Amino acid sequence: MHERGRYDRAAVFAVLDAGLLCHVAYTLDGQPYCTPTIHWREDDRLYWHGSSASRMLRQLKAGTPACLTVSHLDGLVLARCGFNHSANYRSVMCFGTARIIDDPEEKAHALLGVVNRFYPGRSDDLRTTSAQESKATTVIGMRIEDASAKVRAKGVADDEEDYDHPVWAGVISVRTVIGADQPCPRLLPGIARPDGLSAYREGERLDEALLQTQRLYENES
Amino acid sequence: MHERGRYDRAAVFAVLDAGLLCHVAYTLDGQPYCTPTIHWREDDRLYWHGSSASRMLRQLKAGTPACLTVSHLDGLVLARCGFNHSANYRSVMCFGTARIIDDPEEKAHALLGVVNRFYPGRSDDLRTTSAQESKATTVIGMRIEDASAKVRAKGVADDEEDYDHPVWAGVISVRTVIGADQPCPRLLPGIARPDGLSAYREGERLDEALLQTQRLYENES
To answer: Which of B23, B111, B129 has its CB closest to that of A69?
Structure first.
């Protein structure tokens, strides 16, 4: 199904970086879990985090095979027969060994990374993370050992003999967009929306804003 | 983490039915896979499908523990410290045993179900599924034995002493919306957009359209 260690990095990173939300599969005591979470990426390393109180996450200590997937739905494809119904989408499955990040320096760096995923430099302006907060957070890291990207981005693909069948067919396009800001009602007077958020504009696509912030992050680090 | 067999069906179904796309975790030869796919639901049974040529799906024959998750991202939550950064979201993890549907009657019914997920009655107007197409499609079913729904739907929740920290904080809302129709360029003359698609209107939320079609489906069956 996939050759270990060989994948198209540009295609894989483009799908990963366009999403804030991923799903991670791991198996604990024979039960697979499909956990939604926020991921971030540095080169070929993926990170995500959770509560240190989670019994599940503690079991990752020794490292466990995992699969982290990011998917974007782009359209509903209505064809002239059931078999050719489909969806337009971009997805990538990343395989590797998920491990709890114990090294204090790597963990501190990773905890800045999740905040700077929103936009580069965000961490500079925040109240500093306390030792207690760091302890309460489990950071998980995984080097991408292998990945496979899949994209469907086209119109209806019916069998040639079906185009005469009298039914509506087409694609209903779908996109995830940014809505209105909801500023915290307790903002201090005179605090403006940060320039770093300029990629996030009402009505614009979230995937494009996230790609833009990731590119800025890579240029600054 | 979760009590087998006890879950809030209304809350779980509301999240499942609002999504077209799910992620399924299963373990094959010790490797977890997190596969994005289209799901549909009848009462407490979930269905999804794939190609019969898939080596992976064939291994589900005997039944295997699985976890099917649906998630909706609703906002980015930017707080005054890293620890309180978060996302607004709705998600549900469903646990059960995934099995290939072999019974011809159940399989035929399920294959109508995926098409009628787009809108109820769609299957009536299509070219009938051939025996060959049915054979080429593997349908997987799973009864929800247990499920857990999680929702975050609120503003920034900072520590009381942090509200004096001079940084912008707030929620950047996000929604998945329906775009313009892309009718197949080979539509026969006089074929109108079906009434069943009326829930899908440009600019409207996809989750609401999907909830509406699911309710119609349940009322008709």
So the answer is: B23
- Let me know: does B78 contact B171? Beta carbons within 8 Å: yes
User: Angle A17-A184-A204 (CA atoms, 0-180°, nearest 5)?
Assistant: 40
Is the residue at B1 inside a domain? no
The answer to whether residue B100 sits within a structural domain is yes
Q: How many domains does chain B have?
A: 1
> Which pair of tokens denotes residue B202?
């440009």
Q: Report the chain B residue with the minimal C-alpha distance to residue A134.
A: B83
Q: Print the domain residue range for A58.
A: 9-220
Tens of pLDDT, residue by residue over B91-124, are 999 999 999 999 999 999 999 999 999 999 999 9
Q: Is B35 domain-assigned?
A: yes
Residues composing chain A: 221
Tens-digit pLDDT profile for residues A155-207 = 999 999 999 999 999 999 999 999 999 999 999 999 999 999 999 999 999 99
If 0-12 CB within 10 Å is exposed, 13-18 middle and 19+ buried, where does residue B90 land? Answer: buried
- Which uninterrupted H or E stretch holds A179? strand A170-183
Cα–Cα distance between B91 and A200 in angstroms, integer? 24
Residue keyed to tokens 């360029």: B185
Please tell me which of the candidates A33, A71, A181 has its beta carbon nearest to residue B21: A71
Task: Please indicate whether, in this complex, the C-beta atoms of A56 and B200 are within 8 angstroms of each other.
Answer: no
- At residue A5, the 3 state secondary structure works out as coil
B/e letters for A130-168, b = 16+ CB within 10 Å, e = fewer, are eeebbeebbbbbbebebbbbeeeeebbebeeebeebebb
Other beta carbons within 10 Å of B93? 26
Kindly report the backbone phi and psi dihedral angles of residue A71, in degrees, each rounded to the nearest multiple of 5, phi listed first.
-135, 145
Quick check: A133 and A53 in contact, CB under 8 A?
A: no
Q: Assign residue A68 the CATH number of its domain.
A: 2.30.110.10
CA distance B192 to A168: 7
The sign of the CA dihedral B33, A95, B21, B91 is: positive
The answer to whether residue A3 sits within a structural domain is no
Cβ of A32 within 8 Å of Cβ of B32? The answer is yes
Q: What is the pLDDT of residues A104-121, one digit of tens each?
A: 999 999 999 999 999 999
* Chains A–B, number of C-beta pairs less than 8 Å apart: 271
